[in-house]
Design a protein that fits this description.
By secondary structure, the protein is α/β, with parallel strands linked by helices. Helices cover 33% and strands 28% of the residues. It has two domains: 152 residues, 3-Layer(aba) Sandwich (Rossmann fold), CATH 3.40.50; 167 residues, Dihydrodipicolinate Reductase, domain 2 (2-Layer Sandwich).
């Protein structure tokens, strides 16, 4: 049994807790929060842009800690699940690794690439797993696209366009604070840069245009420049939509022998082939919590096997963060920016 200590009971902490109830061979053994009412199970007032609203939780049998160091000293904890605000991820993850714990940290891995580098290096030094919870590849529509590219079943990836647009995230004061989240160009868009990195690798350069507010990029469109031979990939992402369209994400992926189309709330996953057929692959489009369960299950299985799950790679998450920063640099300068 992999025993999990959950740090941070905000929206994502609640989602991870709910998702973890369906794990096999793993369970949440302890939670850590600075708020006494949350340790007592009063999670009313927690809300986000999907999933259930917070309620009064039965935490019988769950250890409660109000200090991180006390949780890290617990010998019964194998994996620390870091769900506190992004600006706290580095110090929390580093402390957990130094305490000899494996770590799963909610995206984004950090706000600054140098902090992400320090986290990756610390995991190697400690001989522990640093896994980053990028849930998008665990959603069925995105898992299908990733497998289609990886397998080569439909030929070479030629190009694609990705989209992720929300209205202003006013359900939480913290999520709207760019100093804690990096703003939409990091907190939101990093889903896209992670998935693009998974499918295509790291591009040589990026060229972005966008909209800024109070020094933070709110919305951008990027071309990922892989050089001669492509693939030709672009993405539009940010917090720019009106309330009538709270959230939309999707893609068009162009392969040599097929085109994949998906847009949440509008176009179900569709496979277009050269014979003119439009097939609807059978995917489970049910409870979004299932994707988080699959994500955390992959982390627990990684701990049990002593092997990093590829979809939760710390290096892949670090590269996704660097891409976000290079894109913001391109928005500010109006010029292509090299990705080192």
């Amino acid at each position: 049994m992999v025993r999990i200590g959950l740090v941070g009971i905000g929206f994502m902490g609640m989602i991870h807790y709910l998702a973890a109830r369906n794990l096999g061979g793993a369970r949440v053994e302890a939670i850590c929060s600075r708020e006494p009412k949350k340790l007592a199970g009063d999670w009313r007032g927690i809300q986000g842009n999907f999933g259930p609203a917070g309620t009064v939780m039965d935490l019988a049998g769950i250890k409660k800690y109000d200090r991180l160091d006390a949780l890290l000293a617990d010998p019964d904890i194998d994996l620390i699940d870091v769900c506190n605000p992004t600006h706290l991820h580095p110090q929390t993850a580093l402390a957990a690794l130094q305490a000899g714990k494996h770590v799963l940290v909610e995206k984004a891995i950090a706000l600054r690439p140098e902090d992400a580098d320090a986290m990756v290096a610390a995991a190697k030094k400690a001989g522990k797993l640093l896994m980053v919870a990028h849930v998008l590849p665990f959603f069925p529509e995105f898992a299908f696209a990733a497998e289609a590219v990886r397998s080569g079943k439909y030929g070479k990836l030629l190009g694609g366009h990705f989209k992720r647009v929300i209205s202003r995230p006013d359900w939480s004061s913290e999520i709207g604070d760019a100093s804690k989240t990096g703003g939409p160009a990091v907190d939101l868009h990093i889903h896209d840069t992670h998935f693009i990195g998974l499918l295509c690798g790291v591009p040589a350069r990026v060229f972005s245009s966008g909209v800024m507010e109070n020094g933070a990029v709110q919305y951008l469109t990027t071309q990922y420049l892989y050089g001669p031979g492509g693939p030709a990939v672009s993405c539009s992402s940010g917090a720019v939509a009106q309330k009538g369209r709270m959230f939309v994400h999707g893609y068009e992926v162009y392969l040599e022998k097929a085109t994949l189309v998906y847009e949440s709330g509008a176009t179900p996953l569709t496979l277009l082939t050269a014979d003119g057929k439009a097939d609807r692959p059978a995917v489970d489009a049910g409870d979004p919590l299932a994707a988080f369960t699959a994500e955390i299950q992959a982390a627990a299985d990684g701990v049990a096997a002593g092997k990093e799950p590829p979809l939760l790679s710390g290096q892949l998450a670090r590269d996704a963060l660097v891409l976000c920063h290079r894109e913001c640099d391109s928005v500010r300068t109006g010029a292509p920016v090299a990705v080192s």
